[in-house]
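Fig. S4 source data, part A: sequence.
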Amino acid sequence: MSFRFKEHDPETYRRKGRLISLAMAGQLIVFGLIFSQLLQLAFDGGFWLNVVGVLLGLVTTSMIFAVLRERPWMTEMRYVWQLKHHLSRVSAYLPALRRAVEEGNGTALAILTFYHQGMAQLAELNGRTLDDDSELLAERQKVYLARQERGLPERVDGFDPQDLAAFKRG
């Protein structure tokens, strides 16, 4: 399944992320306490019953979250999870991709462009900058110049994970 870049409002993403994190933490605390108390009442106390109660709370919270993550109001969160997943996959191939770009491989150049574009979008959504990593900035400039040299557009639309099959991991 290929991944396509989409524009999302960083403020909306951060607001929803904070809200969802707080809701999940609150839900975990409430369910953990409820299950612990029920187990204490049913089996007459013990530390391990509290641990089991918290674990049951975690499982319940995870199940509820798994059901809710497909809701339309989770669009920004789902998009960022997918973006992080694909960036993580690409980062495992970075040494091979860099070598292939030096050899003139166009697919590697497109994947590296996706990587830098995705990192920039992720930083923007999280309200950070990438200005503190000079190596990353130098590589981004190098990729930009290579694309310009070949007459390719500055940006890519997305990424197909199947393209990584041509490269050796690590």
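Fig. S4 source data, part B ends here. Strands lie at 3-4, 158-159.
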